[in-house]
UniProtKB/TrEMBL annotation:
Residues 23-138 form the Acyl-coenzyme A oxidase N-terminal domain. One of its GO terms (cellular component) is peroxisome. GO terms for biological process: fatty acid beta-oxidation using acyl-CoA oxidase; lipid homeostasis; long-chain fatty acid metabolic process. This is Acyl-coenzyme A oxidase. The keyword Lipid metabolism applies. It holds the Pfam family ACOX. The active site is at residue 430. The keyword Oxidoreductase applies. It comes from Triticum turgidum subsp. durum (Durum wheat). Its cofactor is FAD. GO terms for molecular function: acyl-CoA oxidase activity; FAD binding; fatty acid binding. Keywords: FAD, Fatty acid metabolism, Flavoprotein, Lipid metabolism, Oxidoreductase, Peroxisome. Residues 485-662 form the Acyl-CoA oxidase C-terminal domain. Coiled coil: none annotated.
Amino acid sequence: MAAADWGGKADHLAGERATAQFDVDGMKVAWAGSRHAVEVADRMACLVASDPVFRKDTRTMLSRKELFKDTLKKAAHAWKRTVELHLTEEEANLLRLYIDQPGYVDLHWVMFVPAIKGQGTEEQQKKWLTMAYKFQIIGTYAQTELGHGSNVQGLETTATFDPSTDEFIMHSPTLTSSKWWPGGLGKTSTHAVVYARLITEGKDYGIHGFIMQLRSLDDHSPLPGITIGDIGGKFGSGAYNSMDNGVMRLDHVRIPRDQMLMRLAQVTREGKYVHSDVPKQLLYGTMVYVRQTIVADASRALSRAVCIAVRYGAIRKQFGSKAGGPETQVLNYKTQQSRLFPFLASAYAFRFVGQWLKWLYTDVTQKLESKDFSTLPEAHACTAGLKSVTTSATADAIEECQKLCGGHGYLNSSGLPELFAVNLPACTYEGDNVVLLLQVARFLMKTVSQVASGKQPVGTTAYMGNIQHLMQCKSVVNTVEDWLNPAAIKEVFEARALRMAVNCAQNISKAPSQEEGFSELSPDLVEAAVAHVQLIIVTKFIEKLQEDILGHGVKEQLQKLCGIYALHLIHKHLGDFLSTGCVTARQGSLANERLGKLYAQVRPNAVALVDAFDYTDHYLGSALGRYDGDVYSALYKEAWKDPLNETVVPDGYQEHLRPLLKQQLKLSRL
Ligand SMILES: CCCCCCCCCCCCCCCCC/C=C/C(=O)SCCNC(=O)CCNC(=O)[C@H](O)C(C)(C)COP(=O)(O)OP(=O)(O)OC[C@H]1O[C@@H](n2cnc3c(N)ncnc32)[C@H](O)[C@@H]1OP(=O)(O)O
Ligand SMILES: Cc1cc2nc3c(=O)[nH]c(=O)nc-3n(C[C@H](O)[C@H](O)[C@H](O)COP(=O)(O)OP(=O)(O)OC[C@H]3O[C@@H](n4cnc5c(N)ncnc54)[C@H](O)[C@@H]3O)c2cc1C
């Protein structure tokens, strides 16, 4: 029976949509950031969905080679459409986003170009970016090595200046110095920003960036002295395997001196090392930029998973009343709501904090241009911390959404396995999440010590200035309704974050040295960092609610989601809140009671709240998450696309199955 015979064009979720108590269009604007953003995103999403080259429904069934070739085809076609349609930068970025297939272009635009912009001189930018913008060259970001990723100062590749020829000699002295992981390096990139130890006049000046040509622009073969290849298959089918993460070894490869990125430091014709009057941390600027974009990616990935699980939960029915009444939608089970609605709230929370982080990054960049470096440490702490907390929560949530969809969630056609596999490495790339949280903790310890010496903290640590009150305050919450008060919520998050940080600082001060104390206390420091970052997310959500938000009922729904986000964290981390004395056990159970009421209020709006993400069926890529809810027809149809179903009798039957069956039959007759 054809799948179409089982379902029509009906909207199986129409009943769910009819119960919404808010204006979905208004919520789309709140989610996207502006009416303009909704309009451009819609246009680009439809452009991708309607173009057969961008089909992705059989992607998980392709071999690695086929998948890679398909990625090359899509990237070339996307560029062709960008040029033909004169797309703006915003439109072209969205086009790439909706194609939804990791590939070398991501590294080119998200890391290679920003690295040259941030670390190149004006002259270098003019030369290299002109070519990069026209795709005359394809670039990647080659920092990580086989032996070192997190410890950037431990990288081993060398760039030794040779004054006799005015060149750097780029070399991989050991196996562990092989560049390992850079996306697009394996098979595609013609160029890279390579990070290496700068050695001149016999002295090692540490890590610096260099632009290197890797492959011939005529026939794409690696240049002399360069050994290069792909590092091999990665987790999951489809997923990140579309990316050619690469390995590269350099054997005394010479590049002209002017290919060292010289905005932060220079080597003169004579070989003198000169450092500009800017902080050396600006070398890490590309990572700050990318971490900020990863927060936005996390909210998108999480919202996709939630959209799939909510829509499917409204369609899927299990068990009826004892009297033989209709079966229950699984979304109506309280356990399903308490597992799923915190993710729905987190998707909105991460979206809004991502919008704020983008603002913060722009603000810091403008300040850096006028040589004001004062906000750089905070920008580093915020991007590192938010990248870490949002990507870890997202990976966990996608995995849980798979379970929330039961067995069907485990099928590739649910879209969830691929979504998980593509987003899981975000916990590692651009800085391992624990390593990054330790950076946040370091920043917090410094801030605590500055507060102790009377300095008033600013920005996201301003709350620490209220130390007298926050170290001894008791929560004012006395009833379930009191947990609706944003000021009461904010106060307990501030008190928890500050008390955890101060506890760590006090315990470190008892250690023989600061370094030993930091190391010994590192598990607690990571928890203190998480508490601080969660406070930022809660605060930014509360601040969002103070803005003008248009549309009937939109603000009210967001208030409920903000409540769910904050209260589910209190429930989850009750140990922290209790042990620091920020809430009592009774207040903790009142928070949980309030949470249950909020879930019930969100339930009739759940499908509309995920509709507001405004995702096309193409982008969602899920039989379970379809807009029309026609889940079973879609699952049935998708199954037949599997290569195993190309023949009725499987390959291998004659060689392996038939002889086995025959032999067993013969034996049974003996
Ligand atoms: C709307 C449309 C959107 C666009 C759509 C596009 C669609 C496509 C989507 C695709 C997007 C996703 C692309 C993502 C691709 C990812 C590919 C992955 C790439 C990589 O992984 S690149 C490699 C990244 N590597 C790392 O992150 C390494 C991590 N390690 C470090 O960062 C550092 O080494 C360290 C921070 C852990 C430690 O460094 P170090 O030992 O040097 O430092 P100290 O701890 O001693 O600190 C020294 C001081 O410097 C400060 N610091 C450290 N880092 C920074 C920084 N980044 N900025 C500013 N300051 C920094 C420390 O705080 C110390 O300061 P102090 O004052 O001395 O305490
Ligand atoms: C899919 C993917 C794409 C990537 N793309 C690129 C790219 O384009 N370019 C590029 O240069 N790199 C890239 N990378 C590399 C990436 O940046 C590194 O993997 C990352 O920075 C983590 O470093 P590592 O692998 O050395 O982990 P390690 O540092 O070896 O981490 C291993 C474990 O040790 C722990 N650990 C490490 N240091 C500490 C510490 N000080 N204290 C406590 N615990 C610690 C970590 O928490 C982790 O649990 C990519 C990686 C992946 C997975």
